[in-house]
């Protein structure tokens, strides 16, 4: 792998990470409590907290799948 392709890969990851950050910020501004949706499990005891974000993971998976499918369709034309 040459440095040019490495640079392009890093720039691509940076753009994707920035878009994900903007999306999470927008969701919080819209009042969608990511991480506190119905279906996210939270168990608390004295000194132990266990958090399992089932609903948030499913929602993020669906949104990212839609975005990636749209990008794939536009890039292959």
Summarize the entry for a quick read.
The protein has helices at residues 3-29, 54-75; strands at 40-44, 49-53. It is of the alpha+beta class.
What brief labels describe this structure?
77 residues; 64% helix; 2 strands; alpha+beta; elongated; 2 helices
Description of the structure:
- The structure is a single chain.
- The protein is an alpha+beta fold.
- Helices cover 64% and strands 13% of the residues.
- It has helices at 3-29, 54-75; strands at 40-44, 49-53.
- The protein has a two-stranded antiparallel ribbon.
- A hairpin with a 4-residue loop joins strand 1 (40-44) and strand 2.
- The mean pLDDT is 86.
Strand and helix map with partners:
Layout lengths: L2 H27 L10 E5 L4 E5 H22 L2
Antiparallel strand pairs: 1-2
Mean pLDDT: 86
Helix content: 55-70%
Shape: elongated
Unreliable residue stretches: none
Euclidean distance between termini CA atoms: 27 Å
**What pattern of helices and strands is seen along the backbone?**
HEEH
The amount of beta strand, in percent, is: 5-15%
Biggest pleated-sheet summary? 2 strands, antiparallel
User: Helix- and strand-based class?
Assistant: alpha+beta
Q: So how many helices? A: 2
Side-by-side strand order of the widest sheet: 1-2
Over all CA atoms, what is the radius of gyration?
Answer: 17 Å
Number of strands: 2
């Amino acid at each position: 792998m040459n440095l040019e392709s490495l640079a392009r890969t890093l720039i691509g990851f940076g753009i994707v990470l920035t878009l994900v950050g903007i999306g999470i910020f927008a969701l919080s501004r819209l009042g969608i409590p990511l991480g506190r949706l119905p279906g996210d499990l939270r168990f608390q005891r004295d000194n132990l907290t266990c958090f399992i974000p089932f609903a948030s993971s499913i929602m993020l998976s669906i949104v990212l799948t839609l975005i990636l499918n749209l990008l794939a369709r536009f890039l292959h034309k």
